[in-house]
Amino acid sequence: MKLLFYNTKIYDRHTFDELLPRYPAIQIDYQDARFDESTAALARGYDAVCIFVNDDANARALEILNGCNVKLLLLRCAGFNQVDLQAAAKYGITVLRVPSYSPEAVAEHAMALALAANRHVHKAYVKVRENDFSLEGLRGRNFYQKTAGIIGTGKIGSAMARICRGFGMNVIAYDMYPNRDLDFVTYVTLDELLSQSDLISLHCPLLDSTRHMIDRETIQKMKDGVILVNTSRGGLVKTEDLIEGIRARKFFAVGLDVYEEESRNVYADRSNDIMENSVTARLLSFPNVIITSHQGFFTREALDAIGTTTMENAVAYMKGGKIDTEVHMKD
Ligand code: NAI
Q1: Which is the closest atom of ligand 1 to the Cα of 298?
Q2: Using a 6 Å cutoff on CB, does residue 122 contact ligand 1?
Q3: Does the beta carbon of 231 sit less than 6 angstroms from any atom of ligand 1?
Q4: pLDDT above 70 coverage of the chain, percent
Q5: Percentage of the chain exceeding pLDDT 90
Q6: 161-172, pLDDT tens digit by residue?
Q7: What CA–CA distance (Å, rounded) separates 128 from 113?
């Protein structure tokens, strides 16, 4: 089986090259280019393509894949909102993902963002490098005995809930499907969560129903001085409304690993670009906002798990039959 990997970085190549000797029936070629309608034709002659979160498997790109007779799309990530599933179904393209690799990797990063934003670690680091040892602007708040509100208690949200409990926080959550294993968590309505939480962390998927769930209306329901962390998907938060809320001093701090405008930025070195009309730049102009570039998943353990599941997905497809990691339109 010949696989074409799009959008690869050196760490992807290391991970998959290490795994390849275990899979003699699989051959991989790597592309730097992102997958979209302008690059899909490169897949001619391959059996499958493998893409990542910031690729764009839109209807036209999938039509081109189909024209190249490529019937397998491997996602080396959990999220699948970058794939037009209707088009995939229309062209008979099977979509396989990595449903879980290391929920703790993302949850630990969510807490890292919460802590860094709360204690202004990003500012303190720069100040000390400039021999400015003053504490002005660095005062934070204890998390101990405060309330953490987790929106979405699936794999990552559950891991975040456990971390928050470890910090001695009171943990509340909102999810349509409460996780009964989390016996230390109190499930509440979304409105209750918004009004009671000192720290709100988003861990639900991006769906039509969750797009912009954090907007002017929900922000108004939050406690003044709340800390908001988003490591899930940028589209959960309406950025313009977030900026309005930050300007209105609603938030003590905001930590974002994902944001609406990220797809051009993610994993690119744009340090020499002039960022015109950049929402990112506007967000970064606030002293209480910290942004990372979709790196929640980025640990050694997570990459190894992503690599293994992706290769096993390819093997399962070759064998035929039902595959648990398949993404269907109803998902
Ligand atoms: P999961 O499927 O295990 O859990 C998602 C939970 O959200 C489920 O319990 C579901 O019932 C709940 N949910 C769905 N709609 C909801 C709503 N409207 N309100 C409240 N809860 C709702 O997913 P998992 O593995 O925990 O991942 C969560 C998200 O994290 C993914 O969808 C993905 O967007 C993001 N992610 C981010 C990464 C990063 O590097 N920053 C890496 C991996 C995932």
Answers
A1: 40
A2: no
A3: yes
A4: 99
A5: 89
A6: 999 999 999 999
A7: 20
Looking at residue 185, what is its pLDDT?
A: 98
Q: Does the annotation count 233 as an active-site position?
A: yes
Beta strands in 203-330 (DSSP E): 226-230, 251-256, 289-291
Residue from 155, 156, 176, 207 to probe ligand 1 pocket by mutation (most atoms less than 8 Å from CB): 156
Average pLDDT over residues 128-152: 97
Q: Rounded to two decimals, what is the model's pTM?
A: 0.90
Residue 140: what residue type? G
**Sequence-distant contacts of 65-69: CB under 8 A, at least 24 apart:** 65/40, 65/91, 65/93, 66/91, 66/92, 66/93, 67/41, 68/40, 68/41, 68/43, 68/44
Q: How many whole angstroms separate alpha carbon 8 and alpha carbon 253?
A: 33
Span from the CA of 204 to the centroid of ligand 1 (angstroms):
3
294 lines ligand 1 (CB under 6 A): yes
Report whether residue 209 contacts ligand 1, using a CB cutoff of 6 Å.
yes
Residues 6+ apart with CB under 8 A from 87: 58, 59, 62, 63, 93
State the pLDDT at residue 273: 85
The confidence score (pLDDT) of residue 331 equals 64
The best mutation among 203, 211, 231, 303 to test binding of ligand 1, ranked by most ligand atoms within 8 Å of the C-beta, falls on: 203
- Report the SS3 class of residue 117: helix
Q: Which of 122, 203, 233, 260 is catalytic?
A: 233
pLDDT in tens, 172-203: 999 999 999 999 999 999 999 999 999 999 99
d(CA 67, CA 43) in angstroms, rounded, equals: 10
Catalytic entry in 34, 104, 203, 262: 262
User: Phi/psi of residue 82, each to 5°?
Assistant: -85, 0
- Judged against a pLDDT cut of 70, whether residue 72 lies above it is answered with yes
Q: Is 294 a catalytic residue?
A: yes
| pLDDT over 90 (residue 242) | yes
Q: Is the CB of 299 under 6 A from ligand 1?
A: no
